[in-house]
Amino acid sequence: MFIGAHVSTKAGYLGAAKAALQAGASAFQYFPMNPRALRTKSLNERDAAACAAFCREHGLLSIGHAPYALNPAADAEQRELMRTVLISALTIAEACGSVGLVVHFGKYLGKDPLQGYKNIIQLINQALGGWQGRCLLLLENQAGERGHLGTAMEEFVQVRKLCEEPERIGFCFDTCHAFASGLWSGNWPELAERGGALGYFQHVHAVHLNDSLYGAGSRRDRHAGIGTGEVGERAFAELLHSVYFRSIPIVMETAPGTDGTHRAEIARVKALAEGVVLTSKQPER
């Protein structure tokens, strides 16, 4: 399995890949550009190419994460800005050899939720229509903190089907978001069966593996270290044994350990993937 965590790019994209490998990871996530700003970034071709070559040499899988403010559901007056930032992020992720670029499904607070879905489809069509890389656009499920958009598997399947190039679109499944939204209560076999029947999990190309500080259905997006939150180790062990997740990047977005890395948590997740439940802590049902 390809297990790792989010890493900093302070030392560049190659530096991020090296830091991931040193922490015992076989996958990692990074920000191609400033996560707090909604602006494009020039591609450092040499650094990105070195990152891609290093990942190939060491069998590392990576995913980029778009800036938080990139909102695919934004109305038409913001669409050109969203499009240019999205293409910039995709270009960098492609040059780094990444599997895909994770993009939040989007927020739409208008009166007609259907317009939000239309906006997402239009932005994706316009961005991918003007960019021909192989890096996938990976839509991420949401916790439901500011509305219900992006919390149901049916939304993702339908939006992908309605886009002009669905083969270039996949999904990133965030476990904390799924738990917080009420999509997943910890019963993995039930969710896997339903998602497989819908055609959702077949298009999941990355996983954000995060425990939750709050209970199922809380709609509060607060990550916890694996096995230290409300999801519990047994639920994660079930998920990690799923056939859907055997060959895709699985990354934690949790606080690093005392050594400043995710080495201990990566080892913990690898143990869970091998069927070892390390503690008896389980959430109350």
Describe the structure.
- This protein is of the alpha/beta class and 285 residues long.
- The protein has one domain (2-274): Alpha-Beta Barrel (TIM Barrel), CATH 3.20.20.150.
- It contains 9 helices and 10 strands.
- The protein has an 8-stranded parallel β-barrel, surrounded by 4 helices. A two-stranded antiparallel sheet has the order 8-9.
- Helix 3 links the parallel strand 3 (61-65) and strand 4.
- Helix 1 runs parallel beside helix 2 (45-58) and helix 3 crosses helix 4.
- The chain is globular and about 50 Å long.
- Residues 279-285 have low confidence and may be disordered.
What features would you highlight for this structure?
285 residues; alpha/beta; TIM Barrel; eight-stranded parallel barrel; two-stranded antiparallel ribbon; 9 helices; 38% helix; disordered C terminus; Xyl_isomerase-like_TIM-brl; zinc; DNA-(apurinic or apyrimidinic site) endonuclease activity; DNA binding; DNA repair
Question: What ranges have pLDDT less than 50 throughout 5 or more consecutive residues?
Answer: 279-285
Structural class: alpha/beta
Radius of gyration: 18 Å
* Distance, first to last CA: 30 Å
Number of strands: 10
- Assign a percent range to the helix content: 25-40%
Order of helices and strands: EHEHEHEHEHEHHEEEHEH
Shape category: globular
Strand content: 15-25%
In CATH, what is the class? Alpha Beta
Give the biggest sheet.
Answer: 8 strands, parallel, barrel
Query: What is the overall number of helices?
Result: 9
Q: Widest sheet: strand order?
A: 1-2-3-4-5-6-7-10
CATH 4th-level superfamily: Divalent-metal-dependent TIM barrel enzymes
CATH architecture: Alpha-Beta Barrel
CATH topology: TIM Barrel
The average pLDDT score comes to 95
Number of domains: 1
